[in-house]
Design goal:
Layout: H1 18-21, H2 28-33, E1 36-40, E2 45-48, E3 54-55
């Protein structure tokens, strides 16, 4: 028997990992990947690209943003699982 037909693709499609989907930095590029636009960087004002909801996440001590600050209040870009 000859193996004339060879599968060149991956064994199974790979889903994006949790870390690949969550923005690591407050940057226009990374937030756009999760469906969020930055309206005002200095006042940290964000807008959902899907529903146009605008929100301003709370800033924690030390100027840090809370985990999930990028999630739309309407849930447009929130996956069913937690990040």
């Amino acid at each position: 028997m000859s193996n004339d037909l060879k599968w060149s693709g991956p064994a199974r499609p790979s889903a994006p990992t949790k870390s690949a989907r969550r923005p690591k930095r407050f940057s226009t590029f990374e937030l756009k990947r999760v469906g969020v636009a930055v309206l005002d960087e200095s006042n940290v004002q964000l807008q959902c690209i899907a529903c146009h909801q605008v929100w301003s996440p709370n800033i924690l001590s030390g100027g840090k943003l809370h985990r999930g600050y990028w999630k739309c209040p309407n849930g447009c870009n929130s996956p069913k699982g937690k990040f």
